[in-house]
Each structure stands twice: as C-alpha cells, then as structure tokens.
Amino acid sequence: MAELARLESECSFIGTEGSNPSFSASYTCKFLNNLGILIILQKRLIFNLWNMKKIVSSLAIIGMFTFGFSTVSFADEQNPANQNEVELQGAGDSASIEAISAESMPVEEAPAEVEEAKVEKEVGFTSTLKKKFIEGDPFWMGTVLIALIIGIALCIERIVYLNLSSINTKKFLAEVEAAIAKGDVEGAKEICRNTRGPVASIFYQGLSRTNEGLEAVEKTVVAYGGVQMGLLEKGISWISLFIALAPMLGFMGTVIGMIQAFEKIVEDGQVSPITVAGGIQVALLTTVFGLISAIILQIFYNYIISKIDGIVSEMENSSITLVDMLIKYKVAQR
Fold first, then answer.
1. Secondary structure in 3-state letters for 39-56
2. Distances from the Cα of 124 to the Cαs of 110, 115, 136, 245, 252, in angstroms?
3. Cβ distance 197 to 164 under 8 Å?
4. Predicted confidence (pLDDT) per residue in 225-271, tens digit
5. Cα(151)–Cα(236) distance, integer angstroms
6. Domain extent listing, the chain
7. Is the pTM above the cut of 0.85?
8. How far is CA 331 from the centre of its chain?
C-alpha cells in the first residue's frame, strides 16, 4: 500500500509539473499505478504460497509419521513371531548386559569353583583307588599295604633320627678348640655333653681318655665311631626287607589270581576272552601296587643312605681334627 501511494504521488507530480499536461503524461501515470498494484498483488500471492507450502509440508510429515506408526503397530499385532523376536532380542540384550556386568565385577566365585573342582577330582581319585584296591583281591592288596606302611614308618623314624644327629660341625669344632687351647679339657667335655649327635659323642669319649695318652684316645675314637655308625644304620635292613617284600607279595597275588582265572575257565568249559581278560586285569593290580610300594620305599632308602654317608664322613674328619688338636696343644702325651 505504501508503494501504491508513492506511485500516485509521483503521477500527480508529473501531472502538475507543466501548466498544460499532455495525454502521454496522464497515460504514463495510470500505467505506473496499475503496475504498482500488480507488483503488490504478486508479492502477497508469493507470501501466501510460501506459507501454504510450509503448512502442507508440515501436514505431510505429520501424516507420514502417523501412518508409519500405525502400520508398524498393526504389523506387530498381526505377526506374533515379531513379538517373539523382539522378546528374544530383549532377552539377549539383558543377557549381554549381565555378562558385561559380570566381567566388570571382581571375580570372587572363581576360587570357590576351583576349590570345588579340586575336591571333586580328589574324591574321584580316592574312589578309583578304593575300587582298584577291592578289585585286586583285598587280602593280597592288604598285605602289600601293610608292608608299605611299616616300611614308611621305619623310614620316617630314620629320617628324624639322622636329622637330629646332624649339627654345625664347624661351629662345634671351633668351640672345642677354643676350650682346649685354654687347657680347659673339662670345659671341652661340657661342650660335647651339651651337643647332640655322634660327632659330639665321639669327642666326649676321646677327651675322657686324654690322661691315658694319645694312643688310647685314638683307639677310643675309632671304637666309638663304629658304635655310632651302627646306631645310624639301625633299622636299615628292615627297610631293605620291605622294599623286596612288597613286589614279591604283589607277584604272589598275581600268580594266585591267574590260577583262579584258569580255574574259572575250567569250570565254564570254554575259553572266554572276557573271563581271561578280567582275571588277568584283577591279578595284575597286586603287582602294580607292589611295585609302587617298592618304588616309594626305595626313594626313602636312598635318601637315608646318603644322609648316613654324610654323617659318617663328618665323624671321620672330626676325629682326625680332634687328634690334631690334642697334639697341637699338647693335651695328651704319647
């Protein structure tokens, strides 16, 4: 409207500019007036069309969303398989969430599960051992077991005795030499009396004969060394016996089991592979158990022998050192 008023004012200005207006001037004013009206109408039409376009687009988008949601809900209602899939997917998501949470949490139940597995394994091994023990004739398996138990008891007794017989020889020799250097034979004997083991016993017996001369000391040390060696080797022969006895009892059980298997074959009147195989399997179990027992006892026996050899070597070296100390400090004369 402002533009139309501006055009009318311009036209009136053109019409009043000259004293005698012409036809062309009036015609131009009217033309401009009409052109302005057309321009204004065109602008309003364009503005209205733009607003209509926005409204139509909004309605189309709303209609599409409404139609899409209604179609999906209708399809879900008509197809129950989709509902199951959705439920399964939800369950899978929950399971994955639980798995992730379980992984993120500190593993506290793992040690309990490991302990339960160990207990089951131990129970399985124990039950299998009992089953095999019964299958291998309890009488012969029992004799082998008794031999094993007695042999292990003897081995434990020897191991404890030998460990108590071992001392720090270097420290002991230094203390005895210090006392002998002062001429205190009684002090040296007191040290030997308060120290355990065969080395201290040999020293005590040797120092007790210092007033009889060096030769008497040497004889006493040698004689008492033999006594101490016998104490160290006490019970070793019994361990050797059970090492040999365990597999022998196993072999005897195997032979008797084979005899029983052949007797069963004779009673049946035919050679059945099942009967023969079963009898041989049961008979061989005693041999296996006897060999295992002998192996265990042999390991203990070798350890004990090596321990005795070490102590005997210390006894011999210490005896020589004692004689040298007596000669060096002139405690015992020849």
1. HHHHHHHHHHHHHHHHHH
2. 21, 14, 18, 30, 29
3. yes
4. 999 999 999 999 999 999 999 999 999 988 888 888 788 788 877 77
5. 10
6. 2-76, 140-328
7. no
8. 63
**């070793």: which residue's tokens?**
236
Q: Output 147 or 103, whichever has higher pLDDT.
A: 147
User: What pLDDT is recorded for position 112?
Assistant: 55
Give the 3-state secondary structure percentages of the chain, helix then strand then coil, rounded to 5. 90, 0, 10
The answer to whether 141 touches 290, Cβ cutoff 8 Å, is no
- Angstrom distance (rounded) from CA 253 to CA 133: 12
Structure confidence by residue, pLDDT tens digits, 55-94 = 545 555 555 545 444 444 444 444 444 444 434 444 444 5
Tallying the residues shown for the chain, one arrives at: 334
Residues 6+ apart with CB under 8 A from 231: 198
Within 8 A by CB and 6+ apart from 141, the residues are 133, 253, 285, 286, 289
Among candidate residues 133, 130, 155, the one with its CA nearest the CA of residue 294: 155
Whether the pLDDT of residue 100 is over 50: the answer is no
Rounded to whole angstroms, how far apart are CA atoms 235 and 159? 11
3-class SS of residue 245: helix
Please check the confidence at residue 51 and state whether its pLDDT lies above 60. no
The widest CA-to-CA distance across the chain, in whole angstroms, is: 179
Task: Label each residue of 66-107 as H, E or C.
Answer: HHHHHHHHHHHHHCHHHHHHHHHHHHHHHHHHHHHHHHHCCC
What is the torsion angle, in degrees rounded to the nearest 10, for the CA atoms of residue 202, residue 203, residue 204 and residue 206?
A: 90
Which pLDDT does position 138 carry in this prediction? 82
Give the number of other Cβ atoms within 10 Å of residue 326's Cβ: 20
Coil, strand or helix at 334: coil
Distances (CA, A) of 46 to 51, 58, 112, 206, 209: 9, 18, 80, 136, 141
Q: Has residue 189 got a pLDDT over 60?
A: yes
For residues 170 and 174, give the distance between their C-alpha atoms in angstroms, rounded to a whole number. 6
Tell me how far CA of residue 327 lies from CA of 176, 214, 321, 324, in angstroms: 14, 8, 10, 5
